[in-house]
Design brief:
2 domains; single chain; alpha+beta
Length: about 400
Amino acid sequence: MENFVLANCTDTGKARNVNEDSMATFDSPNGRVLTVCDGMGGQNAGDVASQLAVTVIHDILSDNAFATPEEAITRSIIAANQAILRRASQDVNLSGMGATCVMIIIKEGKVYYGSVGDSRIYYISGGMIRQITKDQSYVQTLVDAGEITQEAAEHHQDKNQITNALGLEGMMPPVIGQIPITPEPGSIFLLCSDGLSGMINNNTILSTVMNHNLSLSDRAVQLVNLANAAGGLDNITVQLVEFPEGGYSQVAGGNRGNIHDYSNASSVKKRKNRMPIYASILCVFALIIGGGLYWYLSKEVPTTVVPKSSTTVKEKPAEQKNQKKTIIIKEKTIVEKEQEEKGLAEREISAVEKGKSHPKSKSKKDFPSPNKVTGKDIPGRDGQGTDYSGIMKKFEGEPGEK
């Protein structure tokens, strides 16, 4: 269960007759959702646009479970834009209506967020305030271009001109926070329309939100009061979500126009889950048994695995030795044959010189040329004729050539 506290407040302001802001907070399969929509169109039903956007976002996220919170934010806002366009096309009096939108989804201890238009989300933590959304406005483009400062932008005459909104045919998809935020204990998220951020500065917002002498709902009311005191030129809407250091149980959000104080909500003690303890014990036993088994088996490895690997390693050298041995045998055989031929010739010459007749001698005329030696002319080791012509062809020249 997520631990946070919610509070919200909305007001028409000093200069408007109709509150065109809408907000919602609800549970969904995608996580806890908080959203603020600032309607625009004045007489062209800005309040209809913001209410329709909030309704569609609620229905889409309540009835569908998306793969990620980022997808949930994107798909729900796009669906809201299409609904506004469809509704405006059906009634000429609603033509041109639109709305801004900021949204956060709290899921599994992380906060995901997205925005369209110039409504804002602030993150207050460690005594500092940070705007985590970026205005999609004409003035912001001037800031980005370096033509004016951020401080000057807060008071620029054209600060209400926005460059993206729900209700536009070419609405750009919502800008999604690239990395979800893991809230620090004691941190607070503030969602608001420009009726607040356009009337009081960040330092005033920070000091008010960090005033823990007030309950969270009192702080929301105080922010609205300060905006009205500064002129209240627009509708003012505030949603606060706090992640207390002590921790509170999740609570329901409020409806449009109501203020809710959950700071005194009783803390619900969670039942102790002993499963992690049991699991840890089992893991320890498993490690001990596994370690012992591994030690026992490792002792057998030298008698089984090592000889196999050594045999594998020696297979290639054995083949090489066999190949070398074959080559050496062929070389010796040729040498022996040459020696035998030379011996026969010497014996023939010796017999002629001495005038003796050798029983196996042949005249030089009858002695076969070395280039025509065959296996029948050279005795093998077994005393029988052996054909060496196949072996001799593998070497350079014939055995008798020098």
